[in-house]
Write a structure and sequence with these properties.
Layout: H1 5-18, E1 20-25, E2 32-33, H2 37-50, H3 65-75, H4 83-97, H5 100-104, E3 106-107, H6 111-119, E4 124-128, H7 134-143, H8 164-179, E5 183-189, H9 192-200, E6 204-208, H10 215-221, E7 225-227, H11 233-241
Parallel strand pairs: 1-4, 1-5, 5-6, 6-7
Antiparallel strand pairs: 2-3
């Protein structure tokens, strides 16, 4: 006897509920602000590499480090150096100054509580999808004692690709390779680039209006839900888990 439509729907519903959730966190202005440490490291590394005066600071929010580096080189007319040579110097600066993230930066409201609540749920895996290079991402979350919350192996980072949407795809691929199971995935970020990257991969997205992008702009970009911040921990967790 063939299974009825209600029976199939019930099975599909149970299967959907059984899937674990992969939460992909942006870092800057979503989880924390770094007190300008990375911007200063960019300028210092650039001057050391090129000997040129820094003339113009690009928009960093929601972009990858590879993308930003290409713009910085173009604006300053740099053609005789590579992104790899710049990043070598930049990462040395970050390593030297990593203690300043905690001293000059801060967590955004409710972040520690929301991360802890999600980490206590075995149905949830948390990782980072960020425009930062992987060592910089780790330095930032480690400065605030958050590194144990994330499975960093399956994250997407700014050295993986210049295009933000590709970072989401790489994270999905890494999660599948490591866990060999389907996930319901959700991106949490504060910029329209975070939203666009999620939607390009058919991933749910929760906007957090703790950066320079307004709640209205995040809604307009296509975020399924937008939070003013994460200070209402219960509501934030319900929204992210979906």
């Amino acid at each position: 006897m063939s299974e009825s439509e209600p029976g199939r729907a019930e099975k599909a519903s149970r299967s959907e509920k059984a899937r674990r959730t992969l939460v992909m966190w942006d870092i800057d202005r979503t989880l924390l602000h770094g007190g300008g440490v990375t911007a200063r490291a960019w300028k210092a590394a650039f001057a050391e590499l090129t000997g040129l005066e820094w003339r113009e600071t690009p928009q960093f929010g929601g972009r990858t480090d590879l993308d930003i580096c290409a713009e910085v080189f173009r604006v300053h007319g740099v053609t005789d150096h590579t992104a790899e040579s710049f990043f070598d110097l930049y990462l040395r600066r970050i390593e030297h100054d990593r203690h300043l993230f905690a001293e000059q930066g801060a967590l955004m409201p409710g972040v520690r509580e929301v991360l802890s609540r999600l980490a206590a749920d075995p149905r949830i895996v948390q990782t980072l999808v960020t425009g930062n290079l992987a060592p910089v991402a780790r330095a930032k979350v480690e400065a605030f004692g958050l590194h144990d919350v994330f499975d960093e192996e399956i994250g997407g980072y700014g050295g993986d690709h210049a295009v933000r949407a590709t970072l989401v795809r790489r994270s999905l691929e890494r999660a599948h390779d490591k866990y060999a199971e389907p996930f319901r995935a959700v991106v949490v970020g504060d910029t329209v680039n975070d939203v666009a990257a999620a939607l390009a991969n058919d991933v749910a997205v929760v906007g957090v209006a703790t950066g320079s992008t307004t709640a209205a702009e995040l809604h307009h970009a296509g975020a399924q839900a937008v939070l003013p911040d994460l200070s209402d921990v219960d509501h934030a967790v319900r929204t992210i888990v979906g």
